Amino acid sequence: MTDYTIEYSRRKTIAIIVNPDLRVIVRAPRWVRKSDIQEFVNEKRRWIQAKLQHYRRNPPPAPRQFTHGEMHLYLGAQYRLRLDTALWKAVELAGKDLIVATTEPATPDHVETMMYGWYSERANELFPERLALCFERVGWADVEYPKLVLKRLKQRWGSCHVDGKVTLNTELIRGPVQCLDAVIFHELCHLKVPNHSPAFYQLFASILPDWRERKQLLDRTLS
């Protein structure tokens, strides 16, 4: 039997989150009975065990230290972090280096703040462009263009709200563009089918036949 923690909220559906630390969290509407939650968990037992096995075989990497020489990702490519002192603050790519120039001591916290500010800026430029391109491929599905919200999330790559709002995790800027597109397509499909039923995956596969391969690449790159 799978051990799990239940988190109740104002959400409309039940969702299961399997964390890299092997914690299983079930998020459910307040009105759902525990017996129904248990039944849902039983139905997803194989998927849960597969995720747990994946994380046991592929433990998460050590936390990033944001120190000189450390490797960091941007759009799926590895860059060497280079810390410089300058008259102004800046973050930029130069060849295979990701340069963080500071006007004050480059403490890990300060470097992290600057880097993720830069990541956020790049995401705000790229994500709306990718959403527009992806939306062109789902026009036949008769869904309205969503409002886009970008956030740095801890446990999800994206979400789709019942009001038509799509949220994307800015951490996706670190992965390959094809993985970002896969998450966007996933959320766009939820505008049509707001659950993970067979109908949803049939629609998803019709739009993106290689979604499984892209998901595996995303897991390998950013897990």
Class by SSE composition: alpha/beta
Question: In sequence order, what are the helices and strands, one letter per element?
Answer: EEEHHEEEEHEEEHHH
- Low-confidence region ranges: none
- The amount of helix comes to 40-55%
Rg estimate, integer Å: 20 Å
Strand content: 15-25%
Query: Which word captures the global form?
Result: globular
* E-strand count: 10
Major β-sheet strand ordering: 4-5-7-6
Overall average residue pLDDT: 91
How is the biggest beta sheet arranged?
A: 4 strands, mixed
Compute the separation of the termini in Å: 25 Å
Q: How many helices does DSSP assign?
A: 6
Walkthrough of the structure:
40% of the residues lie in helices and 23% in strands. It has helices spanning 34-43, 45-57, 108-136, 177-192, 198-207, 211-222; strands at 5-9, 15-18, 24-29, 71-74, 77-85, 90-94, 97-102, 147-151, 158-160, 165-169. Strands 4-5-7-6 form a four-stranded mixed beta sheet, covered by helices on one side. Strand 4 (71-74) and strand 5 (77-85) form a beta hairpin.
